[in-house]
Amino acid sequence: MKIFTSAQIHELDKYTIENEPISSIDLMERASTMLTNAIVDTWQASTPVVVFAGPGNNGGDALAVARMLTAQHYSVNVYLFNTTGRLSPDCEQNRERLKKVRNLKGFTEITQEFEPPTLTEDTLVIDGLFGSGLNKPLTGGFASVVKYINASKAKVVSIDIPSGMMTEDNTYNVRANIIRADMTLTLGSRKLCMMMADIQPLLGEVRVLDINLNAEGIEKIASNYSIMEEKEAREMMLPRDAFVHKGNMGHALLIAGTYGMAGAGILAARACLRSGIGKLTVHIPKRNYDIMQISVPEAILQLDKEETIFSQPSETSIYEAIGIGPGIGLSETTAIAVIAQIRSNKTPMVIDADALNVLASHRAWMQQLPEGLILTPHPKELDRLVGNASNDDFERLTRAVNLAQQLRAYVILKGHYTAICMPNGHVCFNSTGNAGMATAGSGDVLTGIITGLLARGYSREEASILGVYLHGLAGDLAANDLGEESLTAGDIINYLPKAFIQLKNK
After folding, report:
1. Which CATH architecture has domain 230-237+244-505?
2. Fold exhibited by the domain 11-223
3. Could you tell me which residues are beta bridge partners of residue 182?
4. N vs C: which end of the chain shows fewer Cβ within 10 Å?
5. Residue closest to 201 by CA, chosen among 416, 407, 489, 441
6. Is the sign of the CA dihedral 439, 444, 446, 448 positive or negative?
């Protein structure tokens, strides 16, 4: 599913109005009906409702919702902020419609002074002050209204987006001047800002309401952002021919696990083998031989010349994919071997964990890396790769996108909505996964999955997107049975078969 910018949202609304065809006011009525239904499904008619409406179309939505809630016997007080004397045409029309409603408890149009109503813990506030068209932080009176609402104990439902929030970049926004919603009813699709972890406390529960925007318009309008859905993941799945053998199902190399960190290599190897691969070779220090042989008997073992560390690059021409980094350590000998392994590589490669940290500590070498690498940093690893910490998650995402373009690489920025940043500037957010996956070894499992998919025959883009999706889906299936608190990286591997079955069988 595409994620649109505020300008593209406006363009899509316009396209729908022109091509459905439907009038702007009727499109607003359609959206408001969906909003009202969502509110009615959650709050009973005995709930006192206070609506705060701004002068634009977000305010028009709020006024229409107030009218519809009143028709369903809710007690509704409305405050319309018209401090400039200019309302949008649709907002003005909904004001006139609302004035004709007999059972409305109260309607106040604020042109100058605002006497705020009492908001109790029983009150439901409908936030319709500003929507996705906002282009600058709130100040003055509107900022004061936001602070007043946030200071109350009332439940708050925001229409489309919490007032004061920018649709994309909130790096320099004032968080205190943004509505802190308990629920956000967003129209059409999630907004880009909703993919950022640091914004989540302001959104509350997010529900996406399908208001039937024009399908042709959605297809025509190009977007650099999307979110992966199960249908799309299912369509990516490669068939498995009945007459295949291990020799044509892919052979991967994993370079993982220094002495004392063998577990990282074991997890990556087990995950790789669960991802459809034909053969797997694991390069390990000599002292890890016994534990790897016992833990992953299906793997072929390739021993380093050193007892405890990775010290020598491997010949890679016989492999379809390489994964490097989990648990390999940061010794200078290892760092030199990592750089040599990466720079000479012509095989699809996944770089994770300590291999990323090696690159971060030798950033001068990064401009000499081959194209097409897959990097899988968590936020702190990305900060180290680019050389300094980010102010917020949007800035970090922007840096990940820039890094992917500069290196002609795939940068997988891990998080709740993991962002797969492509060399062409496109970003695909992942929709699976849960908080239980924030556990040691989870990243090693992801490395193994993506490496296995690459060897299996998926493109770099497909392996990155599908690998992240399967990783999260396996985590979700595990959490459903085991709970988030008790989830381990090994559980994600154990539930990978169920994840594959779910995508294959529907």
Report:
1. 3-Layer(aba) Sandwich (3.40)
2. Rossmann fold (3.40.50)
3. none
4. C
5. 416
6. negative
